[in-house]
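WARN no homologs supplied; continuing
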Amino acid sequence: MKIHVLVDNNTLIDRYFIGEPGVSYYLEDENINILFDAGYSDIFIKNAMKKQLNLYNLDYIVISHGHIDHTWGLVPLIRMHTEAIIEGIDYKKPKFISHPEALNYKSYGNEEIGSLLSKEKIGMHYEMHLTKEPYWLTDKIVFLGEIDRKNDFESKEPVGTYDENGVSKPDYLNDDSALVYKSSKGLVIITGCSHAGICNIVEYAKKICDDDRIVDVIGGFHLLNPKEGVLNKTTAYFQNLNIKAIHACHCTDLKSKIALSKVVEVREVGVGMTLTYEDCMA
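OK structure emitted
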């Protein structure tokens, strides 16, 4: 399985790709192609073209959660796919996977911070599968659905509000999810922002996949100026995880990376990077 980084806050030195505060990954596993998140703009399309990755041949579009830095790129993607139909370009209609609440209207103060596109609008273009339950895309890759939140230090404060049937409610990001690749050597966990809590996500991945071995975790850890207690407990958790390395990026600040680096190797992430996983991490 390969993970191509199409969007991250950072780009790799001497590789001339475009970055932005967001996430988008292109996953290849045998003959299955998955777009995980779409960033904030159309740069994931430009970066995919430079890496010669075919966004007309997607089997799945998976959204980690409904915030702008993961969903607003859906607008240019739908435009691209619509134009492909008009121009007669070979195009495989992908299945769209997310939590049912990922496309609800979200706001923070007076700012709109959720998807620009509704469930109904996206459903006009893609086959929709909205689920709170784990959903296996292949026999090795699973969308976790709604994450169990069992520890006492993560995901305790809402991020703005979301609308449910016309009622505005505090948004604890119940829609925040992740993908897991189940290799013969253990689990590779791929996150968007980890609003559900990175430790909660890892524990739920272990439960769903019935495997306690973690090969790698790549994605945002939602550690942006975290409270000292949160960072200390997260660091302690990873110290006991028996994991060789992690790829913490996007919404993980330098202070948190330094703290985590004391207990686990924190590897660089940037647009243009490709990670390959077989029986173990390459």
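The CA atoms of residues 151 and 200 lie 7 Å apart.
OK
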